[in-house]
Design goal:
The structure holds three protein chains of three kinds. Chain B is mainly α. Helix content of chain B is about 75%, strand content about 0%. Chain B is globular and about 70 Å long. Chain B starts with about 20 loop residues before the first helix and ends with a helix. In chain C, the strands form two sheets. Chain C has a two-stranded antiparallel ribbon with strand order 1-2. Chain C has a two-stranded antiparallel sheet with strand order 3-4.
Chain lengths: ~120, ~350, ~575
């Protein structure tokens, strides 16, 4: 995928301009797609529950493109990739376990006396 | 750094620190270091994503009610600006990898301009929210009214206050650039010129965002009329309370008729009028959940922290730009461009998720 | 093979060392040398230890009598002052002392040398880490001086931390900065171990101290950023009322506990893992025996680091957490006992039939095993759901974590300081006085904290300024023990400081230790090694022979071939 530059040191892998432009084009395309989807979805017959996952999938594809090519992960050491992906694993753990618990006591929070209620202007 | 002065006799290149054996070891260390730094960044943001997920899960209604205040096209514009800056950053890294310092500098400059432009658009978004009282936390007081009638020439005073800093920076950088030119400090002069152009990018963003806001205000958006009705209604009340405010009255000359009409209706019963005046894009504050401000708390935390990262990115990019001007990059030494690039792409990555999470809720 | 003059040059007493190669304030303040930074860290954390220890003694004096009258002549505090004292004791101890202690002081000095390299990967970042430590600790102290103190407990639980008018913002900002200091150290160590090991030094030829610092660094990098964002959000909550943690504004106070413990539980492993690494070195060297179960100890460090991320909810069993989550967190908590026990069993197996030298560091190491054993086992009581309902927020918990943090980490820090002191300063301490201080620490510690288990189990709640008279006897024993402990620690440091200036010259390797740092001169050269060190197995003590002329141990490869005795056992490969 990378350009052939045989005189470069082995840790140097320049990406080809064509590839970078193609990635950029795809990213723009996906951005337009996700905005369009969100505009069309509420009016369509598609199940409302799926709008959020679809938006997240599109975002993840974009993230993959940025990581793999702009961030040179495609050519990087495996260890670096594991290091970076582990961060998402731990973030997921954090989000997942916290979310599993918090639903349990939402009632007591909702019923807690408020100090201050947002008053609309008179 | 007295201790950094080294007296070892290795065959070290110009830019290889004394404690590394080879350019490759230095590059690998830096690369692993920046990846680990990005890990800390992801986990740093993860706290806000937890808060987001939690409130979206337990209180979806506040997200439904609040997202209408965010303009997905301005957000989309910023997404594209950031994606483009990521492209130019990737090209800058490539140029550095090939030892082409001049090309690298140009790409870095474009990246910085895009970064500043992003902030410009963000300034428009923030100031617009503050105009209608969407402040973070307990300051939140949505009322579609500028709390104080201090619009200057039709521009939000919040926007003017925010723009004060870049305006001062623009002047400082321009003067510094000219001084550098006169004193024949070429690199300094070019660096300052680059910074001035970068700050110019902010105003480009402000201009783009402002034009967009003007356009949706002027063309066929019913909500505008509705809101103006509200404005004038309020003005008339103020007049009746003998508080004369010519400036804000003058700003809405064209709508006076409608305003009078509303006033006439308003005489019969305010409540009824209010419900008619609001629409999908500007819902009645009374109809909103009292927790809707938590959405904006999360919005301000996430985008604010992201904006701080953009500013830090501009500073890091400026450093790389300076070293481009000094011609430091070689095929065996381009690490700093690569590392700053990775950081910049991460800032982009986070925005890739923030955009659908905050702007595209439907 | 080297000749005599060369040998004397490498292992003899050096003329220029990292301590004297440049002089003046700036040569220390702007140094990027890992050894000097380590010494500055050492001084810094010691000051923090004595400051927070002073707060502890004030507390213990106050608790001497049940009605809050303190000692007969001293120590009476108002309830508000009492709250401030235990908070400051906890916050300074945790954030400014324990977390940076072993990695910052010992790790900084020893880790690059164990890898045979000149410095850590990012020396300037290392210096920045120390300055962040100073700034962060300064902010904590600013809370005392300008913020009206701090009375939330070191955990900053919402909603109280938002309601109190004490200096929560100063303190949380300080902890935020200290978090970055910790991240910088961890990141530096991870990269250094990954990319800068000596030629041929594979992962399983690393000393176990490196493994434990590596595991610690994983936690520092993965968990500390969460503390950063938590504290930022807390600051935003108390200034802007963003409504995320404060129930009066629609926020979720238990969410704060999730956020806080997502960092702070792994952080207790930041505190104990480096200590375990020190003990692995000490036990092996002073038994002159290959460490038993090397790979088990190595992987148990990583296992503890990773499991540490899955158990944070056990701090919240009584906080309104859902039943399902308490079950999950309780179950995983028990699994942490496995890698911890693996370590203890392996240390004991290493001692078996070893030629044990009971000098000061070894005394500390044995004290560690005893105290950590008790601290670890009582953790199991607290991990059990029904028992925890009774023991939660009692002195039982206080005693448990002091057995781990003080009995574990502080003991290991002292042992490690005694072990590496001759290397760092080139001078030997007075072993008798060292052992006396160790004895005082051990006895004082047990007298202080063992009664707390008893009164905790009988229902004495923690953080109470006044209490039922039935607990008074336990508190009085505890207070007496605390003063003995305080004198013991003071004595230990005095012995060390005296040694650094007036001790006998130590020689390059007085303890016949096999890891690479002992192949430098004592004190080491500015570049650590004046020659390329020979890579030994770090636990192959037979690779070292005594050199009469130098009065120290050197590698066989450096010794005069005529005087080298044959190997006792075949070389492992």
């Amino acid at each position: 995928m990378a350009d052939q530059h045989n005189d470069l040191p082995r840790f140097n892998h320049p990406a080809s301009i064509k590839l970078l432009l193609a990635v950029f084009g795809s990213l723009i395309g996906l951005t337009v797609l996700t905005v369009a989807t969100s505009a069309v979805w509420p009016e369509s017959n598609l199940p409302a529950d799926l709008a959020f996952p679809v938006a997240m999938i599109i975002a993840s594809v974009k993230a993959f493109l940025v990581c793999a090519f702009f961030m040179h992960m495609w050519w990087d050491k495996k260890f670096n990739i594991i290091v970076f992906l582990s961060s998402t694993l731990f973030a997921a753990l954090f989000i997942g376990l916290t979310l599993l618990d918090t639903g349990h006591y939402q009632n007591s929070i909702d019923n807690f006396p408020r100090n201050e209620v947002a008053q609309p202007p008179e | 750094m007295a201790d950094a002065a080294h007296d070892d006799h290795h065959d070290h290149g110009e830019f290889i620190a004394h404690h590394f054996d080879s350019a490759e070891q230095q590059f690998d260390s830096g690369k692993l270091g920046i990846w680990l730094f990005l890990v800390t960044e992801v986990l740093f943001f993860s706290g806000l994503f937890v808060a987001y997920t939690l409130y979206r899960n337990h209180h979806p209604e506040i997200f439904d009610q609040a997202h209408v205040f965010l303009d997905k096209y301005l957000g989309g514009l910023n997404t594209i600006v950031l994606l483009f800056s990521s492209l130019t950053m990737a090209l800058a890294v490539r140029a550095a990898q090939l030892g082409r310092n001049k090309n690298c500098g140009i790409y870095i400059l474009i990246t910085m301009v895009c970064a500043a432009m992003f902030l410009g658009v963000k300034a428009i978004e923030y100031s617009h929210k503050w105009d209608i009282g969407i402040f973070p936390g307990s300051l939140f007081a949505l009322n579609y009214q500028h709390p104080e009638p201090t619009m200057i020439a039709g521009i939000s005073d919040y926007l003017i206050w925010i723009s004060m800093i870049p305006a001062i920076l623009l002047v400082l950088f321009s003067v510094a650039s000219i001084v550098g030119l006169l004193t024949k400090k070429t690199v300094f002069s070019k660096l300052m010129l680059g910074m001035a152009i970068t700050v110019g990018g902010y105003f480009l963003g402000v201009f783009a965002g402002y034009s967009y806001m003007e356009a949706i205000m002027d063309h066929g958006d019913e909500s505008h009329a509705a809101v103006t009705v509200e404005h004038d209604d309020q003005n008339i009340h103020m007049v009746s309370m003998t508080i004369d405010d010519e400036k804000s009255g003058a700003g809405h000359d064209g709508d006076h008729k409608e305003g009078d009409h509303a006033h006439a209706e308003g005489d019969h019963g305010h409540g009824g009028h209010h419900e008619q005046a609001y629409d999908k894009h500007h819902p009645d504050p009374k109809s909103l959940s009292k927790d809707v401000k938590i959405f904006f708390s999360i919005y301000y935390c996430m985008t604010g922290l992201h904006a701080i990262h953009i500013i830090a990115g501009i500073i890091a990019l400026a450093w790389v730009y300076w070293r481009c001007l000094l011609g430091h990059w070689r095929t065996d030494y381009f690490g700093p461009v690569d590392y700053v690039g990775l950081y910049w792409h991460l800032v982009d990555l986070i925005w890739i998720y923030l955009f659908p999470l905050l702007y595209l809720i439907d | 093979m080297v000749d005599k003059t060369q040998r004397n040059k490498i292992f003899g007493t050096p003329e220029t060392t990292f301590l004297n190669h440049s002089k003046g304030f700036a040569s220390w303040a702007f140094t990027v040398d890992h050894k000097r930074i380590g010494i500055m860290y050492m001084i810094g954390v010691t000051i923090a230890l004595f400051l927070a220890g002073f707060f502890a003694l004030v507390l213990r004096s106050h608790l001497f009598s049940f009605d809050g009258q303190g000692l007969p002549f001293y120590g009476k505090l108002s309830n508000a002052d009492y709250n401030q004292m235990f908070t400051l004791h906890g916050a300074v101890m945790v954030f400014s002392f324990i977390i940076p202690s072993i990695p910052g002081a010992l790790g900084n000095i020893v880790l690059p040398m164990m890898l045979g390299t000149k410095d850590v990967a990012f020396p300037r970042m290392n210096l920045a880490s120390f300055y962040l430590w100073i700034i962060g600790t300064g902010c904590l102290l600013a809370a005392i001086l300008f913020g009206g103190g701090l009375d939330t407990g070191w955990t900053f639980y919402t909603p109280y931390s938002i309601e109190t008018d004490t200096g929560v913002i100063y303190a949380t900002f300080g902890a935020f900065i200290l978090g970055f200091s910790s991240i910088f150290t961890g990141l530096n160590f991870l990269v250094t171990v990954n990319t800068m090991r000596a030629k041929g030094q594979t992962w399983f030829k690393l000393p176990l101290f490196i493994w434990s610092l590596y595991a610690t660094a994983i936690i520092q990098v993965l968990a500390t950023p969460v503390l950063g964002i938590t504290l930022l959000m807390l600051i935003a909550e108390s200034t802007l009322h963003i409504g995320i943690f404060d129930p009066r504004y629609g926020g979720d106070p238990v969410l704060f506990q999730h956020f806080f413990w997502f960092y702070s539980h792994p952080a207790v492993y930041i505190m104990i893992l480096p200590a375990m690494g020190v003990i692995s070195e000490l036990i092996s060297v002073y038994s002159q025996k290959r460490i038993f179960g090397y790979s088990f100890i190595a992987f148990s460090s990583v296992a503890i680091a990773l499991l540490g991320f899955l158990v944070w909810g056990h701090h919240m069993f009584t906080s309104g957490q859902s039943v399902v989550m308490t079950l999950i967190f309780s179950a995983i908590t028990f699994t942490v006992a496995i890698p911890s026990a693996v370590k203890v069993f392996n240390w004991l197996a290493t001692l078996y039939k070893g030629s044990i030298l009971l000098n000061t560091p070894m005394c500390y190491a044995l004290a560690f095993i005893f105290l950590f054993g008790i601290g670890g086992l009582t953790g199991l009581f607290l991990g059990a759901l029904s028992v925890d309902i009774h023991l939660h927020d009692t002195y039982f918990v206080v005693a448990h974590f002091h057995f781990v943090m003080v009995g574990g980490t502080l003991t290991a820090l002292l042992g490690g300081l005694y072990h590496w002191w001759p290397k760092i300063f080139g001078r030997m301490y007075n072993d008798t006085l060292g052992r006396v201080s160790c004895f005082l620490v051990f006895v004082g510690f047990n007298v202080t904290f063992f009664p707390q288990f008893v009164m905790g189990a009988r229902g004495m709640p923690r953080r109470y300024a006044q209490y039922d008279p039935e607990f008074q006897i336990f508190h009085q024993i505890s207070t007496i023990g605390a003063f003995v402990l305080g004198f013991g620690i003071l004595g230990a440091f005095l012995v060390l400081v005296h040694a650094a200036f007036y001790g006998k010259l130590a020689g390059a390797n007085p303890f016949k230790a096999a890891s690479l740092e002992w192949q430098s001169s004592s004190p080491p050269d500015f570049h650590n090694f004046t020659h390329t060190p020979i890579l030994n197995d770090p636990y192959d003590f037979d690779a070292l022979v005594y050199d009469e002329e130098l009065d120290t141990y050197i590698s066989r490869e450096f010794a005069d071939p005529a005087k080298v005795p044959p190997r006792k056992e075949p070389v492992h490969h």
